[in-house]
Structure formats: C-alpha cells, structure tokens
C-alpha cells in the first residue's frame, strides 16, 4: 500500500511510520525545511521524504499528483493549545487551510479510492459538564481555545468533503496521547524532562507546573497509531470516532505517579505563566463506537507510558 503521512517527522508521525513499515507499506511523508529529523533518523533509509509546505495549494497539488497515495494520514498541524492563543491566525491557517489544500488536491486528481484519516481532537468538546461524561461523539462541541476551533473546522471539513464529493475521509477525535518523543511542551513529557534534568543536577529540585486539577484521558501513542490504521481499514467514510483509553487522570495525580519513578526529592511549584486563559477541565473518552467498529483496544498500560517517557528524557538531557 502507498501511504502518505503529513507531519511524518513529528511525535505521532514517526511512530505511525514505524508501524506502517513493519506492516510492509511503502511510506511517504512530508516535512518542512525547519522540521527536526531526529525522530525519524533510524528509518530514513526506508521512507520517502518530500519537502512540502501544506499551506501552499500548488505544492500540495504537486505532492498528491506525484505520489498518488492510496492512504493518507493527515497529522501535520499546530498542536499545542497555548500557542493558539499567542498566534491564533497561524493555528487557523496551519490547521484548516493545509487540510483544505489536501482535500482539494485529492478531489481534483480524482483519487476517489484514496482513504484519508484526519487527526481531530477531544479539544473540540471543550466545555464539558461532569454529567456529560464519558464523552460520546454526539456530545456538543464547545471549544475553549483557537486550537479547539481549528480542529472543529478540520473535523467538519472532513464531513463536508465526504458528503459533497464522496471522498473517503475518516475523522478521529483523539484524546490526549503520550509516549517517548512527545514534544517537551506537553504536560507529561514536560514533567518527565524536568525530572530527568533534576536527576542530573541540571536544574534545582523544583518542578514547575500549571493547572494540576484538569482531568485528562491518556492513551499511549503506540496504541493511537494502531487505532489510526484500523480507522482506515474499518471506519465508515465521513463518520467520526472518539479514540481514547477511557481511563482518566487528574494531572496532579499523574504527576505523583511519575514522581514515584525517581529517587530524588522534588518540590512541586505552580508557575502562573503555565496557566491558560481557559482550560478544558475534563476530557473522559467513550470510545465504544470505535472499538465496536474496528475491534481496537488500548494495550499499553499508563505506567509503561510514563516509564518510557522518563527513560526517553534520561537519555537526552
Ligand atoms: N503543557 C502543560 N500543561 C500543563 C502543565 N501543568 C498542567 N497542565 C495541564 O495539563 C493538561 C494537558 O495539557 P497538554 O499536555 O498541553 O495537552 P492538551 O492541552 O490537553 O492538548 C493535547 O491533547 C489534545 C487532545 O485532547 C490534542 O489535540 C492536543 O494537540 C494536545 O496534544 C491541561 O489541562 C494543562 O493546563 C504544564 O506545565 N504544561
């Protein structure tokens, strides 16, 4: 199978590429001039890299024309929620226009059999009341950040392109996912990096945190990439699926689990700059629709995810 991954150099993209190569797929991936290559270094000889600015419709048209993919995993995005408050326009353009360019290219090239997965997000649910959990696909979308709004737009564009043009687009609303290679800005990876730095004496034994009361549903990235491949194998075109473990953690409790993995004594201190203008307080996934449709079940325990993330940072700081 000829597969295109947008954002192959990223956290999820690199794990997905490894998974697809092991399945015997021919893997193509897009990158930008400033993309970091360290995550995909070991698989570089086995993949086809194409430089492409997804915001540029001409480049995307050429990309799709050249590769004529049978499967597309559209992962490239501005994915850090706080960045979307600092530069909302950039988030909108990166997330919405890039996807639009991709859909238009597939449509205009007449690749009707190409199946496309789009990485939507639980951030779309935004303001969720406790009695509305666990969250189903039918829950209202009340995004609380420009990032959340951009993901709603991506999600609905996927629906519209299936309805209007018959493209085979599967929308996956993934809850928080973690694991080795996770960017250092994201909560558990950030905490793990700080622990590793403290262990090596590179930082005083004080771990800075933001809102510890938020509740998140964490899934290991390796389970998530397997879910994406199942979404394209068994998912219904135009349909939307929640993907998440169904197990929630208060961020403060997840931090306590992480701190159990180190011998050093660490003080936890709130850094006001890590607080958000509005935070999504609870994201608890009901993935039963996806599980029923595809047979997917998460397999990697949370303790292993934390352990592997900490080891990842211990090797790098
Ligand atoms: N990043 C960060 N978050 C912190 C910190 N302290 C507490 N938090 C809280 O930890 C939660 C998770 O933050 P992130 O890891 O930044 O992820 P997110 O905002 O939930 O968004 C992630 O998940 C979405 C799916 O729900 C993804 O769509 C998105 O791209 C991202 O991966 C938020 O409630 C945040 O306020 C900190 O020091 N840093």
TrEMBL record:
Its cofactor is NADP(+). The lineage of its organism: Bacteria, Bacillati, Bacillota, Bacilli, Bacillales. Catalyzes the conversion of GDP-D-mannose to GDP-4-dehydro-6-deoxy-D-mannose. Keywords: Lyase. Residues 4-309 form the NAD(P)-binding domain. This is GDP-mannose 4,6-dehydratase. Belongs to the NAD(P)-dependent epimerase/dehydratase family. GDP-mannose 4,6-dehydratase subfamily. It catalyses: GDP-alpha-D-mannose = GDP-4-dehydro-alpha-D-rhamnose + H2O. It comes from Alicyclobacillus mengziensis. Its EC number is 4.2.1.47. One of its GO terms (biological process) is 'de novo' GDP-L-fucose biosynthetic process. One of its GO terms (molecular function) is GDP-mannose 4,6-dehydratase activity. It comes from the Bacteria. InterPro entries: GDP_Man_deHydtase, NAD(P)-bd_dom, NAD(P)-bd_dom_sf. Gene3D superfamilies: NAD(P)-binding Rossmann-like Domain, UDP-galactose 4-epimerase, domain 1.
